Amino acid sequence: MTAQETGKPATTPVGELENELTVALRQFWWLHDARWYQGVKKRFGQEVANEINAEALRFVGRRVGSWYANREGTPDVCSSAALRDVIETITGIMTNEGMMRSHTEPDPDGGPGIQTVITEHFALRMLRAARSLEGYDCPCLDMRGGWFEGLGVDVRDENRECMRTGGAVCRFHTESVQTESVEITSAEAESVETTSVETKSAETAPVERKELYRS
Questions:
Q1: Model pLDDT for residues 65-95, shown as the tens digit of each residue
Q2: Distance (Å, rounded) from C-alpha 112 to C-alpha 16?
Q3: How do residues 7-58 score in pLDDT, each as one tens digit?
Q4: Within 13 Å and on the Cβ side, how many CA atoms surround 35?
Q5: Which phi and psi angles does 156 have, rounded to 5°?
Q6: Are 123 and 102 within 8 A, CB to CB?
Q7: Alpha-carbon distance 116 to 102, whole Å?
Q8: Burial track 13-44 (b if 16+ CB lie within 10 A, e otherwise)
Q9: What percent of the chain is predicted at pLDDT more than 90?
Q10: Exposure pattern of 137-173 as b/e (b: 16+ CB <10 Å)?
């Protein structure tokens, strides 16, 4: 059972688990990932390296998300504050400020969800130094998608700006799909009601059926 289900707090808050050893081990893990990418690229080409890199990071992201959910409970992503907290916490689990500088903020247009803004990323520095930046496909969405799969939450996450392709920062917009589902359900109900009235007034008229698909 999770800490959320038992009603008992976890032994140590995730934010307090950091120490010098975990910082070093995290950096060594990412160093291994970088050397592994370069090795695959050299032997099989960058397209294959990009593909396997994305698969591996999605797998790792899924494990991290699952670990967090088992320890802390599944977050309520309909709450922007909860969504913001879990993204910041998982980001801190996988990196530190010496590797990546980022922050979260409300949607600047006043819409639902939050934005993650990355201003500096160690992977881009390493790729530039290794002369492998051109042709590199950022696996960020795959990694983050793994987080949300592991957490067991339904969100829409999209990349709106990327430093790799010339953006000033990397910018991700994340929002709960559940909020949209409520709106779609209301629209469906209204559509069914309207169709019912029209059918009663013109029973012989052909009826056009429309399906709504959710991502």
A1: 999 999 999 999 999 999 999 999 999 999 9
A2: 30
A3: 555 567 676 666 778 888 888 888 898 899 999 999 999 999 999 999 999 9
A4: 6
A5: -105, 125
A6: no
A7: 7
A8: ebeeeeeeeeeeebeeebeebbeebeebbeee
A9: 55
A10: ebbbebbbbbbbebbebebbbebebbbbeeeebbbbb
Residue 171: phi and psi, rounded to 5, are -130, 125
Angle at 83 between CA 80 and CA 87, to 5 degrees: 140
Start-to-end CA distance of the chain, whole Å, equals 30
Residue recorded with tokens 């008992």: 8
CA–CA dist 143, 56 (Å, integer) = 8
Other beta carbons less than 10 A from residue 49's beta carbon: 22
Q: Rounded to a whole number, what is the largest CA-CA distance in the chain? A: 76
Give 142-164 pLDDT, tens digit per residue.
Answer: 999 999 999 999 999 999 999 99
Cα separations in angstroms, 166 against 46, 67, 133: 20, 34, 12
Query: Residue type for 90, please?
Result: I
Within 10 angstroms of residue 57's Cβ, the number of other Cβ atoms is: 21
Looking at the predicted structure, is the pLDDT value of residue 214 above 70? no
Which residue in this structure is represented by tokens 């959710």? 214
